[in-house]
Amino acid sequence: QIVPDGPTTFCQGKSVTLTADSTLNYKWSTDETSQSIKVSSAGDYVVTVTNENGCSAISLPTTIIVNPLPEAMIVPDGPTTFCLGENVILTASEAQSYAWNSGQTTLSVDITSPGVNVVTVTDASGCEATDTTALVICAEDIYIPNAFSPNRDGTNEVFRPVTGSNVLLNYNIMIYNRWGQLIYESDNYTAGWNGT
To answer: Could you tell me which of 80, 136, 78, 88 has the C-alpha nearest to residue 112?
Structure first.
């Protein structure tokens, strides 16, 4: 008799150990000769056991069923680079259930911010697969001026980027004088250099 250490129906990538319940000599249908074998392929497995007198017996077959993994794919409804105020709808491939890293469990999700989006899809057999996509914010409407006038007239008093509706996630400005000395540095794009 063959004793499995777990389910004999499982998802691709998993395995089960089959053990002959006797302490004799063994010959498996895979040509292995140990008491236990680890299998990950579908099929019928039998073992022939032989005692010290040379008498042999063949076990009943144990059938292993391996279910394929579902296909996981994220399809955006538009470009994956978008501007603030816009959105992208991500749709997963058809499955029994969905688990997004945002906590949502729907086929499609509406994304309005940048980042990495991951979905795990599960099919009717309980097999899982994962896909990932990254969304980034565009950098349009960002203007770096080539001059400013710090003369206290209220116009163009500081040197800084003009960002429009964009929020800069990563920003650093360093200004050097003609001798290569750092005279201004900031990571706040809403601040600006007043020329001093």
So the answer is: 88
14: its two tokens: 């998993």
Q: What is the pLDDT of residues 33-91, one digit of tens each?
A: 999 999 999 999 999 998 888 888 899 999 999 999 999 999 999 888 877 678 899 99
The letter for the amino acid at 127 is C
DSSP the chain: -EEESS-SEEETT--EEEEESSSSEEEETTS--SSEEEE-S-EEE-EEEE-TTS-EEEPPPEEEEEEPPPP--EEESS-SEE-TT--EEEEEPS-SEEEETTS--SSEEEE-S-EEEEEEEE-TTS-EEEEEEEEEE--TT-B--S----SSSSSS-SB--B-TT---SS--EEEE-TTS-EEEEES-TTS-B---
Q: Which of 82, 139, 141 is nearest to 112 (CA)?
A: 82
Q: Per residue in 157-175, pLDDT tens? A: 888 887 765 566 677 888 8
Q: Read off the tokens for 81.
A: 């680079």
Residue type, 117: N
The two three-digit tokens of residue 25, written as one number: 């000599």
